[in-house]
């Protein structure tokens, strides 16, 4: 007779073997590597062998009581909502309500209900954020936050993820945005804030979820989220994704459209989960095979909409074809080990290797010629890139009492090794009929190798009850070698600071005043200034308040801030000017609400007002002569690029009749400018002495959702851009062109849980 326990173990082993076969098969399709498959099988063997013979005999002689799992539905309900309860953007796991800086968290539930696929789409929920159109090699995820670049401030689980590529959300639990300067916590960076992607980690439960979606513009998506508990303290989680969609824009000569063709697999294995020694091994591989879209030109300060020879150029005119491409392969492997010395003391160490490969050929638009099948109209933007990093990061956290005061002490070290390569693609055709591949390159490559070292220390001190002071300092050192003949190397050491004063009036109320700074030598742009110039320096002062209402179900925050940046660098790799402005400032105020108003009514909304101005114009050094030139003085006092005076977003849902849910919301942005503020003679921008940059009109885009939900399955219909609004989503901030947003799109999704 086979014991019940033996049957369970046999079943576990069988199911785990099937899962292992799946992972091994997936590794052939996606180059994840055999490590995870081997790890899975080893863990299964451990689970099966962990029962000694004596224990088995005892199990046969005695009757075991069934295991009853107890869950807190109220807690799960809170975690599954729009209000995040945990974040690591402060280098430690804490409630966002306790962070003395503005934090916006986009939760998994919010992303699911909005049918979000990409990181870019998820960030539409972040007020004060706008999108940049690609140029000069800075294609990929490229956003502005509070009026400042964020391309170097995107992180994955607290480790820098700055490569130029398009990120997906299938493997993310939430996205946290820490606003303001944050170099003390994260090292070199910009002034707007930090965008941190939070990975889905293995957990101690059996839970599976698959979704399938179909929509117009040939939209189709499949996702799978499979979590298996292996032992009392070990589990494995696998997430997969396959998504394809097109847009309404079309090349009139051949009917081709821009498209997104993306796949991914992510594996997370956890051992010792919930113990004093926790180990997670994570790997994610994503692949994109997109047809890129560079938008349309500006004419007379507005996006083009005019008749030309043979037809009309408007928002629906696409200059690329299925021959053009944006191919990327991203592989990120991470080991995370946490040792708890006690409930209040722990050390957390991460080791990561990441490799980002990308090649693209995109057609830039023409202001005078219609697209052609031979792709002769417009220009060609080509690039082949390879960016490899190795990161070691270790944080020590402890709590203690000293001199009658409570301390929450953090110290850490970080090492980052970078190896980067960039080169243009070779035209295998002619000017009239160009043709590029992802493998044939030309010209001299741009390279850099860098070693980055950092040490940081921070203490949060409750000096009297309910009052805390935060003090933090970080030292960064960088040694880099460049292929440039005019700037072959870079060596620097910079200090960064963070301080804040908090008053926790009660458990539901937090008032704070904070100050922080950031720096960047622009070393991740493959270029340096010929003559030594100071690094970018940013300073942010922020006064804010955070409140919890309705027994903690609804959070509300507000913040008023001033951020000043010195020596703002150009992010356009093709630009001859390295400095955009000598001094720039953004003054702003933000409001945000997230959570449940009633048991059936949820809301997420943000409002941001920004006054972004140039205070001092740029000074640039000629690469050949070393002569210093100043930008046109008339730029002083003008509004900064791609920074609307107001942004507003809202999403809300209401459940009724037990299983039905309806929802909707909007994204609104004010007018945005595009121009080059480093121009020495800006007569074209100041006709008749009046500031007349290229402008994108403000817009409001509405979305809607209706769903029928059961505990084990659901059906959901999303309609994006409900009223079929013509709007422009992104602007090339130097002013040349803009990219229209997609027209009305309906997506039907089915979801199965088991």
A few lines on this structure:
The protein has 754 residues and is mainly beta. It folds into 2 domains: 1-63; 207-439 and 450-753, Maltoporin, Chain A, CATH 2.40.170.
Describe what this molecule looks like in 3D.
With 754 residues, this protein is mainly beta. It has two domains: 1-63; 207-439 and 450-753, Maltoporin, Chain A (Beta Barrel), CATH 2.40.170. Helices cover 10% and strands 52% of the residues. The protein contains seven helices and 40 strands. The strands form six sheets. The chain has a 22-stranded antiparallel beta barrel. It has a seven-stranded mixed beta sheet with strand order 4-3-2-38-39-14-15, with no helix packed on it. A five-stranded mixed beta sheet has the order 1-7-8-5-6. Strand 36 (699-709) and strand 37 form a beta hairpin. Helix 1 (4-29) packs antiparallel against helix 2. The two termini are 31 Å apart.
């Amino acid at each position: 007779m086979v014991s019940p326990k033996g049957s369970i173990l046999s079943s576990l082993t069988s199911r785990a073997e099937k899962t292992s076969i799946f992972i091994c098969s997936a590794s052939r399709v996606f180059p994840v590597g055999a490590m995870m498959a081997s790890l899975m099988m080893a863990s299964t063997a451990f689970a099966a062998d962990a029962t000694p013979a004596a224990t088995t005999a005892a199990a046969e002689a005695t009757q075991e009581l069934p295991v009853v799992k107890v869950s807190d539905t109220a807690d799960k309900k809170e975690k599954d909502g729009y209000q995040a309860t945990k974040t690591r953007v402060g280098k430690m796991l804490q409630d966002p309500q306790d962070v003395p800086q503005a934090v916006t968290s986009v939760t998994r539930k919010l992303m699911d209900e909005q049918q979000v696929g990409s990181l870019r789409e998820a960030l539409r929920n972040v007020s004060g954020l706008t999108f940049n159109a690609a140029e000069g090699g800075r294609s990929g995820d490229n956003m502005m936050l509070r009026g400042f670049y964020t391309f170097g401030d995107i992180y994955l689980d607290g480790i820098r993820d700055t490569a130029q590529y398009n990120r997906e959300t299938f493997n993310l639990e939430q996205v946290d945005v820490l606003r303001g300067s944050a170099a003390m916590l994260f090292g070199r960076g910009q002034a707007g804030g930090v965008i941190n992607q939070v990975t889905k980690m293995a957990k101690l439960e059996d839970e599976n979820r698959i979704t399938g979606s179909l929509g117009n513009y040939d939209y189709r998506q499949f996702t799978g989220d499979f979590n298996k508990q292996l032992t009392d303290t070990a589990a494995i989680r696998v997430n997969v994704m396959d998504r394809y969609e097109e847009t309404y824009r079309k090349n009139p000569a051949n009917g081709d459209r821009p498209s997104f063709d993306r796949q991914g697999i992510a594996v997370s294995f956890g051992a010792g989960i919930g113990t004093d020694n926790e180990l997670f091994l994570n790997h994610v591989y994503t692949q994109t095979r997109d047809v890129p879209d560079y938008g349309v030109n500006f004419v007379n300060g507005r996006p083009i909409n005019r008749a030309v020879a043979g037809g009309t150029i408007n928002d629906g005119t696409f200059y690329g074809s299925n021959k053009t491409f944006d191919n990327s392969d991203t592989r990120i492997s991470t080991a995370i080990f946490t040792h708890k010395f006690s409930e209040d003391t722990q050390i957390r160490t991460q080791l990561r290797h990441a490799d980002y490969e990308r090649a693209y050929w995109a057609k830039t638009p023409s202001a005078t010629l219609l697209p052609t099948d031979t792709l002769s109209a417009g220009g060609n933007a080509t690039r082949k890139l390879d960016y490899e990093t190795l990161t070691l990061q270790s944080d020590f956290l402890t709590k203690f009492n000293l001199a009658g005061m409570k301390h929450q002490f953090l110290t850490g070290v970080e090492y980052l090794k970078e190896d980067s390569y960039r080169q243009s693609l070779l035209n295998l055709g002619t000017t009239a009929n160009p043709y590029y591949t992802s493998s044939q390159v030309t010209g001299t490559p741009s390279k850099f190798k860098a070693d980055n070292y950092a040490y940081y220390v921070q203490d949060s001190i409750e000096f009297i009850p309910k009052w805390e002071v935060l003090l933090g300092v970080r030292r960064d050192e960088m040694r880099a070698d460049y292929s440039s003949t005019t700037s072959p190397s870079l060596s620097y050491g910079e200090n960064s600071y963070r301080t804040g004063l908090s008053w926790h009036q009660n458990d539901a109320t937090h008032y704070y005043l904070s100050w922080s700074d950031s720096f960047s030598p622009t070393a991740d742009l493959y270029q340096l200034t010929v003559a030594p110039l100071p690094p970018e320096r940013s300073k942010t002062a922020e006064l804010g308040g955070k409140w919890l209402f309705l027994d903690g179900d609804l959070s509300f925050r507000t913040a008023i801030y001033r951020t000043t940046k010195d020596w703002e660098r150009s992010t356009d790799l093709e630009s001859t000017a390295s400095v955009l402005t000598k001094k720039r400032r953004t003054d702003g105020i933000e409001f945000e609400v997230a959570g449940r108003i009633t048991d059936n009514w949820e809301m997420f909304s943000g409002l941001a007002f920004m006054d972004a101005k140039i205070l001092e114009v740029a000074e640039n050094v000629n690469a050949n002569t070393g002569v210093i030139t100043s930008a046109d003085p008339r730029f002083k006092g003008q509004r900064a690029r791609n920074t609307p005076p107001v942004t507003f977003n809202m999403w809300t849902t209401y459940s009724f009749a037990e299983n039905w849910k309806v929802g909707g919301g909007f994204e609104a942005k004010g007018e945005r400018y595009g121009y080059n503020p480093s121009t020495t003679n800006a007569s074209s921008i100041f006709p008749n002495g009046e500031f007349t940059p290229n402008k994108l009109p403000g817009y409001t885009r509405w979305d809607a959702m209706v769903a029928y939900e059961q505990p084990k399955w659901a059906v959901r219909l999303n309609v994006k851009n409900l009223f079929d609004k013509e709007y422009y989503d992104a602007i090339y901030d130097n002013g040349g062109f803009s990219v229209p947003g997609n027209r009305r799109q309906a997506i039907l999704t089915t979801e199965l849980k088991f």
